[in-house]
Amino acid sequence: MERLEIENKLWQGVDNAVVGASHSDDHLKRVVATGLRFQRLYGGDEEIITAAAILHDLGRADKQLRGKESALESVHRARLVLEETGFPKEKIDAVCQAISEHDQPEFTPSTIEGKILKEADFLDGFGARGILRTLLWSGERGETMEETMHRLRVKMPARIAGLEFPESKKIAERQYRFVELFLSLLEEPTSLETEKLTGKYIVIEGTSGSGKDVQAEMLVGWYRKQGIKVRLVHEPTPDTKPTLASWRSEIDDHFMDMFFYIADRRRIMSKEILPALRAGETVIDVRSWIDTQVYEAETKQEEALVRFLHAFVPDMDLILWVDVEPEEAIKRIERRLTEENKPFSKFESLAKIESCRKRYREILGKLNNVVKINGMSSPESVHEEILKAVEDEFGSQGGISLC
Fold first, then answer.
1. Which CATH number, 3.40.50.300, 1.10.443.10, 2.40.10.10, 2.60.40.10, labels domain 200-394?
2. How much is the average pLDDT of 38-45?
3. What is the pTM of this model?
4. d(CA 293, CA 299)
């Protein structure tokens, strides 16, 4: 019988068992994939590792069994499946031995296949996936909140301590940091107290070349003519740009830039924006954390991290997205840089602007109080469209705090 045919029959044997969501095919496939990567590093029989990874959780169908007892039940069920599928007889004992020894943190399996199974299985139980699978498993077993927390606080670190391969330990210890963050957030009491800010917070966003700065100046001028207290803020703040330029001359790292912008934003938020909003002023902010997510976050994890770390930023009352076609943005940038005798930056290529425009569309589509402004018209026409958006949101005076 062909090897692939046998493997497919092993998967069918698993499909016939009801092991629950915490130990479903999703988990088994990850264990197989990780196990085969370890096999390329440490050796071992590929067939034995694959079969053991597919069948190692069959005992989970009996929710009353734990640890070694569950592993032994998996061995019993696995042997039946192996025999029925025509798996090589001379390898069945090795598969069963690996399964019998894999789920014990304090025990070192006696074969390389058993060690690989243990490491691969444990590695799917840390970090975000570890939290999810722990919650699923605890729910399947009907455990209490205290028992579930014990799994995260005590049992998960014990499983990390039971790892032997250096690659496994490094990955697991890094992933457990997220679990520690999760646990710390659970300890925070629920608070209904939110600061009441009497001012209005307006943010102007858009790619390079969209005309944000020009529109911000025009909007500030309009507010002042109305006799309304207004404050203009630019991000990043002008006095931090030399520092960032110096850092970039040493290393070009988007992750460094991301945290630089967050630190700068925290400073200007505490120093200027929040005091102005508390005093009832209107704040017009050119760029925000949205810009950082668009330009600096390169992965889904980084996007989520940017949002999470900006919990200190108050809700925006109005987000004005000045949108222009990338080709027009490049023309405007080129004219400006020619006048200033400066080169294009890494953010001012056509490909980058096209990419960032797409990111703006994705991110702003999920937020509230966003008004898309057609930035292709003359500055005066764009200004009129912005004024309409402001008046629609706040009334004809754009705010209530008069000088």
1. 3.40.50.300
2. 97
3. 0.82
4. 10
